[in-house]
Amino acid sequence: MTKELTKEDVWTIEEAENLYRVKLWGESYFYVNEQGHLSVRPILGDPIGIDVFRVAQDLKQQKIQFPLLIRFQDLLRSRVSELNNAFRRAIEEAEYRNVYVGVYPIKVNQLHEVVQEILEAGRPFSFGLECGSKAELVAALPHLEDDRTLLICNGYKDWTMMRLMLIGQLLGKNVIPILEKYSEIQLMLPLASELGVRPKFGVRVRVSVAGSGKWAASGGDASKFGITISELVNMIDELTARGVADGFKLLHFHLGSQILDIQNLKQAVKEIARIYATLRKRGLDIEYVDVGGGLGVNYEAGEVTSPHGINYTLQEYTNAVVYTVKEVCDAEKVSHPILVSESGRALTAHHSVLIVEVMASHRRDAVQDSLAPEKIDNPVVQELAKLLAFVTDKRRKSVPILLETFHDAAEKRQEVSLLFELGYCTLDQKAIAEKLYWSVCINVNRMLQRRNPELLPKDLMAMREQLTDQYLCDFSVFQSIQDYWSVGQVFPIMPLQRLNEQPTRLATLVDLTCDSDGKVDKFIAPTGAKNALELHRLVEGEPYYLGIFLVGAYQDILGDIHNLFGRVTEVHVYADAEERDNYFVEKVIKGTTVQEILAVVQYFPNDLQRRMEQVIQQKVKEGLIRPKVGVQLLDQYSKAFHEYTYLDSNDGA
Prior knowledge:
Number of strands: 23
Strand content: 15-25%
Shape: globular
Number of helices: 22
Helix content: 25-40%
CATH architecture of one domain: Alpha-Beta Barrel
């Protein structure tokens, strides 16, 4: 018994959707079904639904270990279609006289299955790729099956990278290196001459408008990428002098991977459109205007005041780009450019759901039955029992009275601790005092449930936080939701089942790692974030699953190997109305084993087993264990190399 919510009326699935704000962050994809299970409609415009809890149950029965990442691959295709169709609608309505060509920045999620799915879904829209490193370039080049497919190459470049980009052009591919700094001219031109290629390229400009939120430094004067306006003017002069200015095909800017405010975008687009128009008037044959990435995702459920929320829709974003460029170009009487965007987060975030199992809960230890004060022989502990009796009666009490009761209980608890240290209180008496103290706090908190938390004294608010349960979950914060730990990104988290039942617990989530930062104590809320999540009481023998949503962008790639927890098991799911439960599993990619993760930090089985064998043999010689036991111990040690790095809830032990 600890921090518990009141349960009065019949709980509905609509209330569950509102509590966890499903329709805001989940858009049209996620919902709660009639069984009280979290479900997904992954195909745009198709009512077919997949019960995520049932998927988790089926995988559990197949002995697939948790935590695991479920990829709803159809969702990738839906997001690609939504983005391209939104631009097409805006272009048609605005009577824009050119087209939109999107590119997927593979840094957002480089996993091959993700990239392939996006390219296949984007084929009707001539969707391309963006890369920003040597390895990404090597991965992307062979995927340009159609010569018209656009490959944007951002980032700082060395000789190898630039040569590969120019080789792509030599092969007739639509590869455009983006010059990030003035000196890259000196890198590009000699290599182009050596290969016999007349280079085409783009330039990234530092617009004066900065982004907002955590990634504001990606744009404006603070950006580490791009050239200034003065450098752009000098660069054009040099390109003209060298006779290669006709290769300048693309103008680019970037405000960051999550633009929070649509006004920032409009200002930046207006500035880049003005630069484009000016350069066209100077005779430069620029074909593309690339507005970069930044199409946002509603991690914090659409609240414009939250640090990671966005204040616009997908259609408003595309309208802002199309209409702003058209307005400037029409005023300047120049042709409309091909529009390019590098949206990655908005395409991939929704399709991945991390499923973690709650292994146990830690609650404050309280008295289970009534405890008469006169039966307690220690007078200070007796006072705590009297305080508990006072707060458990039926009479309504004011906030000042409850505050005073809490202060009295805290004082008595401290007195008991001092008496114990001095030897005037037994261990059993101290244990009873602890239970009585937490029981007082629990009952005070219960009386505060319907009070406005913003009007409560800070001591009572601090007490409420101390009462929060801890739910131990089988995963690593550092591996699976690193942005939560590193930049304070809040992700939607909710149970997969029992959503037709009112949650009666408030809890924070703690992971398997030994680090105190390995916890989640910030959750999406109507305003900003809350410090505890509404969850259900655990039922012995029944699994309880939590879904962590919108993790498809960056989180799949960023995770480190804290405590040597590796990649989680990955399951690729497709919707199919002819299959039982409307889905089938196309692929299961097993998570990292102990042996695989140890190899990353240069521990190898042969060496470790040899060392372990020496330890065991020494103990056999000393007579501590029998030889047969030593053989069994070494065998058990060796088997651990092939185990999943996370907890095995299927383990009979």
